[in-house]
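User: Hi! I have a protein structure encoded as tokens and I'd like to know what sequence might fold into it. I'm fairly new to this, so please keep things simple.
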């Protein structure tokens, strides 16, 4: 009898945890969804570019490196999750040299071509308000890849 009671208690606790998880998901703010989607997207960028060099310099991407945006994510919201706009970048270039943008652009042209770089530059400063559903889709997409 005690074993069965313990088993039932564990099931109740598990159900409670699942319900709590669902409630937390429903009450998340758009800012929280944005942060989660950005984290998953950046992780995917790091995996995609793991065997490459920094987009801005010839340093191999080993250990800790950033998912650096050519057009900043904060100031160019429409390009925040654009795969051409984000590449593996060493911490030195991204954080200490403010993106090392002149060399980033050169590396970007070599990697994706001038036409696609021009597209990014033409679409800079376009403001996009991301809906929670869109952010959830982005999170799911890049988790699956």
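Assistant: Happy to help. Inverse folding works backwards from shape to sequence: for each of the 145 positions I chose a residue that suits the local structure. Here it is:
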């Amino acid at each position: 009898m005690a074993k069965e009671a313990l088993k039932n208690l564990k099931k109740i606790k598990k159900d409670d945890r699942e319900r709590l998880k669902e409630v937390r998901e429903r009450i998340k703010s758009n800012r929280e969804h944005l942060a989660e989607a950005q984290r998953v997207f950046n992780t995917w960028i790091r995996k995609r570019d793991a065997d490459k060099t920094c987009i801005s310099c010839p340093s191999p991407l080993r250990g800790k490196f950033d998912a650096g945006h050519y057009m900043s994510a904060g100031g160019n919201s429409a390009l925040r999750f654009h795969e051409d706009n984000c590449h593996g970048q060493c911490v030195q270039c991204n954080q200490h040299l403010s993106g090392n943008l002149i060399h980033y652009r050169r590396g970007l042209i070599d990697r994706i071509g001038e036409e696609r770089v021009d597209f990014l530059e033409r679409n800079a400063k376009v403001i996009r308000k991301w809906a929670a559903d869109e952010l959830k889709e982005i999170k799911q997409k890049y988790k699956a890849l």
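A useful reference point when you look it over: Residues 29-144 form one domain. Feel free to ask if any position seems puzzling.
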